[in-house]
């Protein structure tokens, strides 16, 4: 306890007011110095530190706002791009379906026209065959008729007199002319 009393007694022995000196007792002076420095820093540095923190806070908020605005713009652009993509996909599907239907319609039209052409060719072939058959039949008829007529004329020439012969020729020529008119 004596040490404590000595320290209080030593407080009564302060040097006179006019002198200045260094206290080299670190344990006694260090907390006082620290409290003075901290007090001065708090008093004078409070405004500067507050301003620095406020500026930093404002920059952070501005960065967040800018980021949000950029994100919103990016989301809008993404939605527009998705809408355009869907529109283009729909148009492509419609175009594809239209082209497929056109191709199918052209294919059906091609088959139909080919079938009609083949049918016309078949009809033309059949008509040509029928015409050639009729022509061949007519030629055969004419030859048979000419040969029969020549045979009849030969028989008549040998059996008939000249007057009867001329009358028969005239009648046959008239019949032959009538047959030619019918055949044509």
From TrEMBL:
<comment type="similarity">
    <text>Belongs to the ATPase B chain family.</text>
</comment>
<keyword id="KW-0066">ATP synthesis</keyword>
<feature type="coiled-coil region">
    <location>
        <begin position="64"/>
        <end position="98"/>
    </location>
</feature>
<keyword id="KW-1133">Transmembrane helix</keyword>
<keyword id="KW-0406">Ion transport</keyword>
<protein>
    <submittedName>
        <fullName>ATP synthase CF0 subunit I</fullName>
    </submittedName>
</protein>
<keyword id="KW-0472">Membrane</keyword>
<keyword id="KW-0812">Transmembrane</keyword>
<keyword id="KW-0813">Transport</keyword>
<dbReference type="GO" id="GO:0015078">
    <property type="term" value="F:proton transmembrane transporter activity"/>
</dbReference>
<keyword id="KW-0175">Coiled coil</keyword>
<dbReference type="GO" id="GO:0045259">
    <property type="term" value="C:proton-transporting ATP synthase complex"/>
</dbReference>
<dbReference type="GO" id="GO:0015986">
    <property type="term" value="P:proton motive force-driven ATP synthesis"/>
</dbReference>
<dbReference type="Pfam" id="PF00430">
    <property type="entry name" value="ATP-synt_B"/>
</dbReference>
<keyword id="KW-0934">Plastid</keyword>
<feature type="transmembrane region" description="Helical">
    <location>
        <begin position="32"/>
        <end position="53"/>
    </location>
</feature>
<keyword id="KW-0138">CF(0)</keyword>
<keyword id="KW-0375">Hydrogen ion transport</keyword>
<dbReference type="InterPro" id="IPR002146">
    <property type="entry name" value="ATP_synth_b/b'su_bac/chlpt"/>
</dbReference>
<comment type="function">
    <text>F(1)F(0) ATP synthase produces ATP from ADP in the presence of a proton or sodium gradient. F-type ATPases consist of two structural domains, F(1) containing the extramembraneous catalytic core and F(0) containing the membrane proton channel, linked together by a central stalk and a peripheral stalk. During catalysis, ATP synthesis in the catalytic domain of F(1) is coupled via a rotary mechanism of the central stalk subunits to proton translocation.</text>
</comment>
């Amino acid at each position: 306890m004596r040490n404590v009393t000595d320290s209080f007694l030593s407080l009564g022995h302060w040097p006179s007011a006019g002198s200045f000196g260094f206290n080299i007792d670190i344990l006694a002076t260090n907390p006082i110095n620290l409290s003075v420095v901290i007090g001065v820093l708090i008093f004078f540095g409070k405004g500067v530190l507050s301003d620095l923190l406020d500026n930093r806070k404002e920059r952070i908020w501005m960065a967040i706002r800018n980021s949000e605005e950029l994100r919103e713009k990016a989301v809008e652009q993404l939605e527009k791009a998705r809408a355009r993509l869907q529109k283009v996909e729909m148009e492509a599907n419609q175009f594809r379906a239209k082209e497929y239907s056109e191709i199918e319609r052209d294919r059906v039209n091609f088959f139909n026209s080919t079938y009609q052409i083949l049918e016309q060719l078949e009809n033309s072939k059949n008509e040509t065959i029928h015409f050639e058959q009729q022509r061949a039949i007519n030629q055969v008829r004419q030859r048979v008729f000419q040969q029969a007529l020549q045979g009849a004329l030969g028989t008549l020439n040998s059996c008939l007199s000249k007057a009867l012969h001329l009358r028969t020729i005239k009648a046959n020529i008239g019949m032959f002319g009538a047959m030619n008119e019918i055949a044509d």
